[in-house]
Specification:
Blueprint (H helix, E strand, L loop, with lengths): L5 H9 L8 E2 L5 H11 L11 E6 L1 H18 L3 H12 L4 E6 L9 H21 L3 E5 L7 H8 L6 E11 L11 H4 L6
Antiparallel strand pairs: 1-5, 2-3, 3-5, 4-5
């Protein structure tokens, strides 16, 4: 018989990302972040390739990225509202972890499996932060797809992609529940 873990199942059944705009200081310090990062890296990883890496963005780095987002938005001729979203993601964040997909050349492991593993890291990071009592959310936005921003701001290497920015801090408001998928519309049972 399996040994159920009702607390873990309850957490997973009720977990809810926190909107980035509701996250403020304090954020976890390095000592508090280590167990969160450790838990986040316990993901499916076919071939034990570790096809991802993390960049922890503290205040000075977030300020630098906010300025870079402003420069990149101007260079791209973005309207003020669109630019502000990219800038604000970093200017207002108490702490952010960039999850980078860093694929490994391994002919036996398809790249898509490495992409999925990096996505699991991002979700694992959100869940670990929430389980540790912090608010957290996974965002992308236009900076996540701007090559100049990624290269100049995060030092991404050839072949790497950003999986997402996971913002972590103290939540100021508990978001209302949102509609969840209807199992009967999304699940098919195959018994033969």
């Amino acid at each position: 018989m399996p040994a159920p873990n009702p607390a873990a199942l309850d957490f997973l059944s009720t977990r809810r990302s926190r909107p980035a705009k509701t996250l403020v200081l304090p954020a976890p310090d390095r000592a508090a972040l280590i167990p969160i990062l450790t838990a986040a890296l316990r993901v499916p990883d076919h071939g034990k390739l570790e096809p991802w890496r993390l960049i922890v963005l503290e205040r000075a780095a977030l300020d630098r990225l906010a300025a870079l987002a402003g420069d990149r938005a101007a260079a791209r001729g973005m309207d003020a509202d669109q630019a502000a979203k990219g800038i604000g993601q970093f200017a207002a964040s108490p702490l952010c972890v960039a999850v980078i997909e860093s694929p490994v050349d391994q002919p036996k492991i398809p790249l898509i499996e490495q992409t999925y593993s990096a996505g699991c890291v991002a979700l694992g990071l959100v869940n670990a932060a929430l389980a540790a009592g912090w608010g957290a959310c996974w965002l992308t936005g236009w900076p996540a797809y701007d090559d100049g921003f990624l290269t100049d701001g995060l030092g991404l290497r050839a072949g790497e992609r950003l999986t997402g920015f996971v913002h972590i801090g103290t939540e100021t408001a508990h978001p209302p529940e949102r509609p969840r998928p209807d199992l009967s519309a999304r699940v098919t049972w195959a018994d033969a």
